[in-house]
Amino acid sequence: MFKKSILAAFVLLLVLPFSAMSQTKKSLTLDDLMWAGSNYWNIMPRNHFTAWWGNRLVETDVEEVKVMTDAKGRTLAQPQVLFTEDEVLSALDTAKWGKIYGLSSATFPKGDEPIAFLQTPTANFYYNWEEKSVTWSAPRAKGVSDRDFCQASRSEAYVKDYNLFVTTADGRTLQVSTDGTRELQYGRSVHRDEFGIYKGTFWSPKGNLLAFYRMDQSMVTDYPLVDINHRVAELAPEKYPMAGMTSHKVTVGIFNPATGKTVYLQAGDPTDRYFTNIAWSPDEKTVYMIELPRTQDKAELVAYDAETGARKAVLYTETNDRYVEPMTPIRFLPWDDTKFIYQTRRDGWNQIYLFDTTGKQLAQLTKGQFEVIDVLGFNTKTRSIIYRSNETSPITYNLWSVNVKSGRRTLLGNGEGNHNGTLSADGLYLVDRWSAPDVFRRVDLVNTDKATAVNLWQNGSPWTEYKVPEIEGGTIKAADDSTDLYYRIVKPVDFDPTKKYPAVVYVYGGPHAHNVDASWNYVSRPWEIYMAQLGYVVFVVDNRGSEYRGFAFESCTHRHLGDVEMQDQIKGVEFLKSLPYVDADRLGVHGWSFGGYMTTNLMCTYPDVFKVGVAGGPVIDWKFYEVMYGERYMDTPQENPEGYASSSLLPKAKNLKGRLQIIVGYNDPTCVLQHNLSFLRACEDAGTQPDYFVYPGAGHNMTGRDMVHLHERITRYFEDYLK
Q1: What DSSP string describes 15-80?
Q2: Which residue is catalytic, options 384, 668, 675, 711?
Q3: Is 145 a known active-site residue?
Q4: The whole model's pTM is what?
Q5: CA distance 138 to 152
Q6: Is 560 a catalytic site residue?
Q7: Model confidence at 293: pLDDT above 50
Q8: 426 is catalytic
């Protein structure tokens, strides 16, 4: 018996090391963590792409399309394959049109017919899967940009050589403009993508008419960027209207493909004015547009006659001493062409209001100290609006419905995490994609009438085989000692509370962005996970001035960007220093764009707090930044010289003590090189010593493999000087 026990113990000793080795978890690398990393997509669980075929939910994969539910929202016991990539290729004239991109982008324009809309590089087409045939096709032009396909008319607008073209359903190509140049552009986004603008063409509901932007920027100063992809580098200038300088002029045209004629909206002199949030009436007779003066302290909703371009009426006017920032066009109720919804922050929080076409306010449909993030659409059966808001918590984004008649609001889903989704044709069903701090990804099917949900897919953490850090969320008080600020803290892998660790503050801090919400791992960035692998604490806090906390929270920085934001970040540093495992003598800071501005500002304003900083694409002086954004938050340099002077980092260059590396894209059209070059000159004059690294040919953000290289660069700097 004794001998058997010794033998068993000996065998156990032999087995244990191998067992432990087999269970040893790996460390994550940047190639595992970054989107452009060589191993990222091998680790990530398969995503599920979906589309709506009427009220039927369809899963669109690369090689096949399957229907998941019936028309009454009931999940099928076994998903039914509708068609495959091979079947489509067999029906398509690939010699003429080329091969399809895959089926994951398929859409279903006719909810009562077995028709899928697909594309090749040179064609748009409809595929009937019951007949296994292509029932319609039209050419797509090569070498073009800004494509805008209209399902209603099967017409496509696009831009080539700065001119606007339209290809109709019967294959005709119509040239809308002929005098386009780099200085006079048609059909492209204007006002540097501010005010929610992201494109330059707007089809009417039935696709019979096309509204488009025309931007004259001949009067705008060229900023001299350089293209090095030539034997001798060539100029590649960017039209860049800096704060307080001459800006471009925009007009809006209406093109009629049936007549080939264009009329322009009679909006008056476009000098120092912004035109945004273009929308159509359901009958295509009226175009609506929100107009702002350059001061951005007033917004007017204006109606225009679509046939003549004549100005019909101002339906709504809003003013604010700081700024008004309309971000979404009006949307008509599908069941009532005389009423529309309008989103505004006029009561301090972005909310939904109901108006009629005379401009009379009928109701405020949502109200409270929360923000409506966006409107997904309408449930036409219950006559409700489906929207997304942070009503349950400032960092929790949930889906809701509000009944237009009664104003009753209903939570759709479980009330936790970060939710978003897409609606079926009549809005009765919703694909709800969400995550929570401990939920990587979950997809539910929601009945928006009954507010019930059925789970379709759920993915656990992709990192079960890897060492991962502990990540916590919480709140601290802002520098005003009353406002809650939300943070996350990423602790080192194999965390030992008795040790002292170096810590890095990651910061953005500006408007229209936030870093912390109740998504998986509190939205920790891949680089933060990597730094935790190397033994760093990473801390992130959303200061006042960031988004989705109401107008007062965001606009308290008005005319003095950087002041309040830094005060709040320093409160975060005080919290960090209070933690027994943080080494207060080894604090770093890193951020990009506005975060690069904050990083440089913190390094120079609090030179004895931060030992190391890495500032990416930083703003250095707001007078070098563009008109629309800069003047909204700072007014012009002429109107606010004190604010521009106090927020400039050039006079602070002399204060730099720690190691600061500035990283930029050489062809950055957003934070142009004048920012960082001026700062380098100021440092040289003052005798301070920043470091500098450039990505030739890159813009404001790095893409592709440069992302991995960039984060290796950032990490190495902290490894060299903070450890």
Answers
A1: HHHHHHHHHPPBPP-HHHHSTTSTTHHHHSPPP--EEEETTEEEEE-SSEEEEEE-TTSPEEEEEE
A2: 668
A3: no
A4: 0.94
A5: 14
A6: no
A7: yes
A8: no
